[in-house]
Inverse folding.
């Protein structure tokens, strides 16, 4: 049996004396109670919620850091990148057969190309990162992520090799194929 010498406050020593038990016995019981406390386990839903909260916090921090950096730079005219997500402007009356705008056509083309690249990685038995797909297409990863999410192809936070990164996982294969079929890919 090991030995542990512990200095305690006067009030704790009085409490131990009042129990009528030896100091060693009280300390051993206290240590057992400390180490035997059940650690709460999270359900899969709770774990997914924790991961989603972490992802949202990371996005918020990145957005705040981007704003801070922009404010420190010299004043430049704002120009939207060619692959930025465009928000549709509310129209007073919906037209019976809306024709796709050039931005929507560009987004559809980008989704199709990204889906093809994702399937290419899947065929090589690899789960590509969101950054890899963006790099392959020569676009920014954040706007591409928004466009892909709107199409139902959202990269997931996964941990591989001790690093957390957003990847298009194999379980998305069916959805990727559906998106390609719907877009004539």
């Amino acid at each position: 049996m090991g030995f542990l010498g512990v200095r305690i406050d006067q009030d704790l020593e009085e409490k131990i004396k009042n129990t009528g038990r030896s100091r060693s016995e009280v300390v051993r019981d206290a240590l057992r109670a400390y180490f035997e406390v059940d650690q709460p386990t999270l359900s899969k839903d709770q774990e997914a919620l924790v991961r989603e909260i972490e992802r949202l916090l990371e996005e918020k921090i990145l957005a705040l850091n981007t704003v801070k950096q922009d404010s420190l730079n010299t004043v430049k005219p704002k120009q939207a990148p060619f692959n930025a997500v465009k928000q549709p402007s509310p129209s007073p009356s919906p037209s019976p057969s809306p024709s796709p705008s050039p931005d929507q056509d560009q987004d559809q083309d980008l989704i199709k190309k990204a889906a093809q690249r994702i399937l290419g990685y899947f065929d090589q038995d690899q789960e590509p990162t969101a950054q890899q797909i963006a790099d392959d297409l020569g676009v920014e990863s954040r706007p591409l992520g928004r466009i892909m999410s709107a199409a139902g192809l959202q990269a997931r936070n996964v941990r591989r090799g001790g690093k957390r990164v957003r990847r298009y996982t194999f379980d998305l294969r069916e959805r990727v194929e559906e998106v390609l079929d719907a877009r004539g890919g």
Notes: Residues 101-185 form a domain with the Arc Repressor Mutant, subunit A fold (CATH 1.10.10). The radius of gyration is 28 Å. The mean pLDDT is 78. Strands lie at 156-160, 163-167.
